[in-house]
């Protein structure tokens, strides 16, 4: 049973993995390469686009709630959205602040969903598209803090103290608006005489929205980015040993065996040599356990000469668990039931190999099976 300490350790390990993928897989650690500067330019473009997504979403929210917007000025670094906040309820303004960040989150979700659908129905997503979606996710996470940074530099606070806005904030010469981080402070300062409550509400709100954006970015990096390669790496690094399926060294698929047997029926040698498939089933049982029974199927491909002599070409063994192994090394004329020195170890039990050898040594004359009947019991 996992304790709280174990859960914290797993959370720290996941955050470390996220940071590693952002810095290494995206190429941000190689600042001297052209790829690094291309990603920087892509990130700056994504941050610039998220600015307009943020304010256009807020403008649509105001228009949807029938709140008059008497000025909307898109600029290179910000957007001026003017409305009379005194006529707006507090919960509506909180929704306005939330929708600005959620607009970018929805845009990132749309890009992530498009990338996932493209991988599922079209094929691999190019690395350029994957990197752009990641840059959009980073811009979404940084959106509240970039808004604060620009508002502070643009002096989008304390508008009533400016000379051009002292008469009215709605004046045409007043280009100052209260930034998102200062809206609730100004509201509670005017209504209750203290803006501390507004500060705490904004901090909690943006902290929750940032966590939501981080979760969306983490899910994208793990399941969609680079066509799911990171999820494969994550499972290989953090998975338990018994959770992996490790095929045998000489294992082949059943479809490949079917193809080989189909080619055998069409093969003809220069001297009339043909290739035929012989199938034998060996049932292993335990006298001490009546319920124990394992069936192994040996598929052998022989070169049959015109005079009836035959020589082993290839042979395969279907294990009880369904795995199909190609057996390498010739079947020797030994009577001890062992393979030659180049045969794989642990492919099957000694009893089974001994039975196969005995059948070969007796020169079993059973008829070969057709390519269709070979796989009836497989």
From TrEMBL:
Keywords: Membrane, Transmembrane, Transmembrane helix
Top-rank taxon, per record: Eukaryota
Transmembrane segments: 36-53, 94-117, 129-150, 196-221
Name of the protein: Transmembrane protein
Organism: Phytophthora infestans (strain T30-4) (Potato late blight agent)
